[in-house]
Specification:
With 250 residues, the chain is of the alpha+beta class. The protein folds into two domains: 187 residues, 2-Layer Sandwich (BirA Bifunctional Protein, domain 2); 46 residues, Roll (SH3 type barrels). The chain is 23% helix and 33% strand. The strands form two sheets. Strands 1, 2, 3, 4, 5, 6, 7 and 8 form an eight-stranded mixed sheet that branches. Strands 12-11-10-9-13 form a five-stranded antiparallel sheet, with no helix packed on it. The protein is globular.
Length: 250
């Protein structure tokens, strides 16, 4: 069971850090408390899924990680991804009155472009999640010119899509509040909440799965975030991991 009822304290702030997830993992090995929050103005080695570099320029994005001690079964790990993705979407919509969605399994999307991402890293002992670090990176105040050339066609920021001033502290507080309600089970957040946000449900996708390129439509997401890929012949494949591309990206 969770050991505390709030997230975000203590707060550890960095002007510069290699990555907030790495900082959280280091702290967890030294006994840091559940709910400890790690926030950076810039990251020199920010990471996304599959060790991809996360572009983290100073003063433009929201980069943070929160340390959890779930003490739950390892199979519950993806539920943390589900809850955090929905929390980010709900917080953005509440504060900026602007709809955003989720690309499987954990990218935040707007207008067919990536707005942010989530990285979960866990320490598992005897099939129990002892420590979990949820890292979230969001593009906040970038202009198009702030992105590297290779990212400009597929990446956006909250300021670009909303046309509003976007404050890190306000959004961070709301994300932590919503996610905390899910995590401590004050509010329910099931797979249907994730499905409502999915930007490619029942749409055509491409996926690199075990080194094989597959194509078909995205169906039947389970609570562990696995899904069914229905190919052109009607055959159904259960997909648990891989990298998908939407039609508009291919």
């Amino acid at each position: 069971m969770p050991s505390s009822l709030t997230l975000g304290t203590p707060l550890i702030h960095f002007e510069t850090v290699d990555s907030t997830n790495k900082a959280a993992l280091r702290a967890s090995s030294n006994g840091a408390a559940e709910g400890t929050l790690f926030v950076a103005e810039t990251q020199t080695a920010g990471r996304g899924r599959q060790s991809r570099k996360w572009h983290s320029p100073p003063g433009l994005g929201l980069y943070f990680s929160v340390l959890l001690h779930p003490k739950t079964a390892a199979l519950e790990a993806n539920n943390l991804v589900l809850q955090s993705a929905v929390a980010v979407c709900n917080a953005i919509e509440e504060l900026y009155d602007y709809p955003v969605g989720i690309k499987w399994p954990n990218d935040i999307y707007s207008e067919n472009k990536k707005l942010g991402g989530i990285l979960l890293e866990t320490t598992i002992t005897d099939n129990t999640i002892e420590n979990a670090v949820i890292g979230i990176g969001l593009n906040m105040r970038h202009s198009v010119e702030d992105f590297p050339n290779e990212l400009r066609e597929k990446t956006t920021s909250l300021q670009i899509v909303t046309g509003k001033d976007c404050t890190n502290t306000l959004l961070l507080d709301r994300i932590l509040s919503i996610f905390g309600n899910y995590y401590f089970k004050r509010e329910k957040c099931g797979i249907n909440e994730w499905i409502k946000r999915c930007v490619h449900m029942e749409k055509r996708i491409y996926i690199n799965h075990n080194g094989v390129a597959l194509r078909g439509s995205f169906h039947e997401v389970s609570s562990d975030l696995s899904f069914i890929l229905k190919d052109d012949s009607g055959h159904k494949n259960k997909i648990e991991y891989g990298e998908i591309s939407l039609d508009m990206e291919v």
